């Protein structure tokens, strides 16, 4: 829901595109290298839709009490949202911090995937044996 604020503020949009679901950005909100482009990827929409998909996945997982373990829903959320963020970050043009040419959001997302996956393995395999 929060990403819809980006839509109303004409911010956090993606690279120029001519796809049917393109988003018009008024000239005063376009970054200087893209002043001639009118239509951009609606990254807020991508993230909103994918977050809804994550909700449906986690909701269905939560309904199955037999396979549920403490903390798994949060770990699955962290992993799934990090993949969403990596995907969306691929289209964004407003990233300002980079590490060796990679947006910080992508680097952090990869770290979260690795850490949450390790905890998930521990929570489901190693902790089970103990």
Question: What is the strand and helix layout of this fold?
Answer:
Blueprint: H1 4-8, E1 23-24, E2 39-40, H2 43-63, H3 72-89, E3 98-99, E4 102-103, H4 104-129
Helix pairs in contact: 2-3, 3-4
The largest β sheet comes out as: 2 strands, antiparallel
The beta-strand count equals 4
The total count of helices amounts to 4
Strand content: 5-15%
Mean pLDDT: 91
> Helical proportion?
40-55%
Global structural class: mainly alpha
Report on this structure.
By secondary structure, the protein is mainly alpha-helical. The chain is about 55% helix and about 5% strand. A hairpin with a 2-residue loop joins strand 3 and strand 4. It is elongated and about 55 Å long. The mean pLDDT is about 90.
Please tag this protein with its features.
mainly alpha; 130 residues; 54% helix; two-stranded antiparallel sheet
Summarize the structure.
With 130 residues, this protein is mainly α.
């Amino acid at each position: 829901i929060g990403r819809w604020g980006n839509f109303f503020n004409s911010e956090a949009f993606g690279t120029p595109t001519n796809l049917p679901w393109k988003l018009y950005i008024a000239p005063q909100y376009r970054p200087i290298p893209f002043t001639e482009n009118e239509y951009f990827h609606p990254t807020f929409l991508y993230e909103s839709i994918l977050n809804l998909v994550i909700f449906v996945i986690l909701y269905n997982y939560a309904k199955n009490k037999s396979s549920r373990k403490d903390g798994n829903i949060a770990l699955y959320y962290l992993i799934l949202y990090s993949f969403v963020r990596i995907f969306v970050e691929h289209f964004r043009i407003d990233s300002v911090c980079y590490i060796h040419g990679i947006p910080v959001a992508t680097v952090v997302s990869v770290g979260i995937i690795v850490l949450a996956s390790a905890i998930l393995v521990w929570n489901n395999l190693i902790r089970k044996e103990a």
